[in-house]
Every structure is written in C-alpha cells, then in structure tokens.
Amino acid sequence: MPRRKPSPPETSLFAEPEGLKPLAERMRPRTLDEIVGQDRLVGANTPLRRAIEAGHVHSMILWGPPGCGKTTLALLLAKYADAKFRAISAVLMGLPEVRVVLADAATDFAQGIRTVLFVDEVHRFNKVQQDAFLPHIEKGVIVFVGATTENPSFELNSALLSRCRVHVMDAVSADAIASALRRALNDTERGLGGRGVVIDDDAVATMARAADGDVRRALTFLEIASEIAVDGRVDEATLAQVLADRTRRFDKGGEQFYDQISALHKSVRSSDPDAALYWLTRMLDGGVDPLYLARRMARMAVEDIGLADPRAWRMALDAWDTFDRLGSPEGELGLAELAIYLSVAPKSNAAYTAFNQVKDIVRETGTLDVPMHLRNAPTKLMKGLGYGKGYQYDHDAEGGVALDQQCLPDRLAGRAFYEPTDRGLEGQFREKLEALRAARGARRATKRTREG
C-alpha cells in the first residue's frame, strides 16, 4: 500500500501544549518581527529577511552566544518556507541516529516535502559526522541549519563550511532583553499578563543586565521571580534571591576564552591599565585558572616589555609565585598588580623581533663555521690547526671591548639584528650600542684600507 503523502506539519515546538512549556519557550518569537536584538541580521529590508519572507531559504551556520535566538531563527525558516522542521543535538546523537533522520528527510523529499534540519551544537560533531550531511545538502534533500557558540572556522570542516553561509548572531543588548521581558509581562495568551505580577522598570532593567545577552535566561529569571514573589510583587528581596550566584558568559575552552585573553594581552601592550585590569577580572570571574593568567602575563613581560624594563620579568615570576603560595582570592591581588605594572611599564619588542629574525637566518644559512679565532683550543693539535689564533681578550683591550674582533660567521659579518628602542632602559642600551657599532665600523674600514 503506497504511503500517504503527509502535508508539511506545523513545527512541533509551536504545536505542543502551551501550559506545559516554561515561559521562555512560550514566548519564543513566532514571526521575524518578534525577534529582539538581531536587527542587523533579520531587521526590516535586510537580505536574509527578504529571502526568508520569500521562502528562499538556504543552508547556513548560525554562530552566536547562548540565548541569542539561533533555534528560533531555524524554526522560523521552516515556518516561512512551509517546510518540515527536524531538530537534533550533536551532544545527544551519534552517526547512526543522524543517518535515520537523513533517511526520513530523503523519503519526505521524494514526496515533495522540504526539511529544515536544525543541528544544535554542531561543533560537537567530528569530521566524519559532519561529512554525513554533505550529499544531502548538495542534493537539496535538507536545508541544513547548524547552530554553534564556537568559531566555525576552527570547529567545522571546510567541506561543510563551503556548502553553508555563516551568519553571525549578536549577544542581545540589555535594552532589547528588557523589551522581551515587558512583552512577556503584557502577553495574556502566552505570557504573564493578567496573572497579577507587579514589577517596576528598574527591576526589569536589572534582570535584563543580569541575563548577560541571553534572552532565554532573562525570561527564566522573570518566571522564577513571578513564582516566588509574595502576592505577585517582585520586590528587591525577590530580585536578589533570583539573581544570586549568577555567572557571566564565559567558556573556558572556547571563543570567549580566546577573545578575552587576546583583549588582556593587547590592553597591556597598549599601556592601558584600566582595560587590562578589567579583562583580567572578567577572566577570573569567569573561572579561568589564575595560574594560566600568571603564565600568560610572564610571556607579556618577556615579549612586550622586554629589555625596556627587565624588572617586569621578575615581577611576573614573583606574582606567579605569590599566587601559588596564597591561592584565591588573596593571591589574585598580586596578579592584578602585575597587570597594572605591565601596562604602565615602557614597552619594547626589540629582543623578540631580533630573536625571530635570527631564527630565520639560522634556517636560511644552515651550519656556518665558527670563526677560527673564537674556537675553543683545549689540545695541542687544535692549537696547531689555528683554533683560537688571534683571539683578543676584551678585558685587556682599551675600553674593555676589542672593537676589531669579528664574532659573527664570515657570511654574516657586519649584520645587525638587535635594534633597541629609546624607551626605558633600552634607551641606554641604544646609545651604547650605536657608539660601539660606529666604532667597530670605523675599525673595519681602517683595516680594509690598510689591507688594500
């Protein structure tokens, strides 16, 4: 008996009994106009919005923080395109389950039914699992919508990325979240309208800020507050109870982590102690290992302060040791003081640049011979071969420097790699080194004249 062709169903999340859903699910936007905080992407007359409203949906990756509306947008894609919506999670499903879903989508496709396949946490799938979607995307069997909080460039393979457009979704602003909360308070069908919940604008704004860009989280705060409030009135005590021990948005292994450590390093390099202290505190607040921060700031002392202020190295090691001895929270003050000191210290990457330049030279020139006069001559044979012959002991030379003694291999004679800045202690190095290099150059010129 032939299978009856089903009509594209309304998305299941919209069809479930409203009374069983949490407030955040009940208030999920049902139209593009109800989405808050994503005007850049789906605001009026944007290319993506025009395409969705015309039913011209394409496979895509939605990249953004939690609670910004990735699932909602996928649902609306299916709704506007009159397509079937299927949702899977890369956390909960493996390749066998994925193949079943894709087989169902292929059957529906043969009967003229489109499927929007939403893959939550798509970055959790490995390369083989990601590859399983490719032929179905190419043939149009599915409109693939992957959601990720991680940078797709790092987490998704190039084959999948080449078949999808990446759309970046923003963290939702506090003002936009506040408007979503007010909508929930006034909505009598799905929200809290008519239920006697009393909350002032300041409390709404506080909830919106505490949600840290996550609309779903804000609506959860509001629902809990409405349930525990005495006589429906959300006062300061209720608000404090709901918002106690909340955490900021931070992923110790993901994009937020690397963005913030980058911001800390660049704030130090830009001599901005206020910004450096802010990013350090944000990372400590987010739960990063303080010893990791100590190690990274030791690297900053070496790379960005360098010889302009060698005390920065010692202070970095001391702050590291202080935290190791004191632990949290006392030892964190040492890290904060280090971040401030590194920021205001004079900066130089001259040694770092010189070191990298010499590494390149070593790779390019290979094993150049040590000049004979610099070679060690512990045996009579080696002395007879000329090892050490002509070496000048600098302490016996005038001024303590044998100016006409060449220390680089012949092929690199006269090359200069280290160019100190005029900042901090390096300013003194620069003055002395310029004088030495000029004197050596003059000696070499005199020697060439005599030999010529």
What do you see in this structure?
The protein has 452 residues and is mainly α. The chain folds into 4 domains: 12-168, Rossmann fold, CATH 3.40.50; 174-243, Helicase, Ruva Protein, domain 3; 255-344, Zinc Finger, Delta Prime, domain 3, CATH 1.20.272; 374-451, post-AAA+ oligomerization domain-like, CATH 1.10.3710. It has 22 helices and 5 strands. A 5-stranded parallel beta sheet has the order 2-3-4-1-5. Strand 2, helix 6 (95-110) and strand 3 form a beta-alpha-beta unit. Helix 16 packs antiparallel against helix 19 (332-344). The longest helix has 26 residues, at 426-451. It is elongated, with a radius of gyration of 33 Å. Residues 1-14 have low confidence and may be disordered.
Highlighted features:
452 residues; Rossmann fold; Helicase, Ruva Protein, domain 3; Zinc Finger, Delta Prime, domain 3; 4 domains; five-stranded parallel β-sheet; 22 helices; 5 strands; elongated; disordered N terminus
